[in-house]
Amino acid sequence: MRSSDDLSELESELVSVSRTAIGDDLRSITYFTADDYEQLYLRSDLEQDADLGPFVANERLGFTSQQTYDETELGEYRFTVRVFEWGSITRTIVGGHGVFVTTDPLQLDELKEVDTSIRTVLKEFSG
Fold first, then answer.
1. C-beta neighbour count of 65 within 10 angstroms
2. φ, ψ dihedrals at 92, nearest 5°
3. Residue 118 and residue 68: Cα distance in Å, rounded?
4. CATH code for the part of the protein at 4-126
5. Cβ partners under 8 Å of residue 63, min gap 6
6. What's the pTM value of the predicted model, to 2 decimals?
7. Distance CA 103, CA 120 (A)
């Protein structure tokens, strides 16, 4: 089990790399495991009391997706993007923990960049 200092460092690092990759188009960052979640960042112009439970429940399905797509001819499962009228959700999972970020509309290259950054941080803290 990681110490609270390790978790604080993980959270800080996730916010830092996400802000660097996305800039002001970043809306929110939520870290989650199978049992828990925490919103790490929420842009100040957004609704502060939104119910994250349904979002987290949906993104946790990614733990199953990792197993479903394991060893397919498509290669390693990387990340999931859902595009909406006014933005997107990008989910990255490494092992038993994941992150989803919400953004204003972005290009796929920008979403790939944030996935790569988040994946690197999650791998670093997995070991």
1. 13
2. -125, 130
3. 22
4. 3.30.450.30
5. 34, 93, 96, 98
6. 0.91
7. 20
Residue (of 125, 73, 64, 124) closest to 91 by Cα position: 64
Q: % helix / strand / coil in the chain, to the nearest 5?
A: 45, 30, 30
- Give the pLDDT of residue 1: 41
With H, G, I as helix, E, B as strand and everything else as coil, classify residue 85. coil
Whether the CB-CB separation of 10 and 39 falls below 8 Å is answered with no
Residue % of the chain over a pLDDT of 90? 74
Distance of CA 61 to the CA centre of its chain: 13
Going from N- to C-terminal start, the domains of the chain cover 4-126
- In our burial notation (b when 16+ CB lie closer than 10 A, e otherwise), range 26-61 reads bbbbbbbeeeebeebbbeeeeeeeeebeebbeebbe
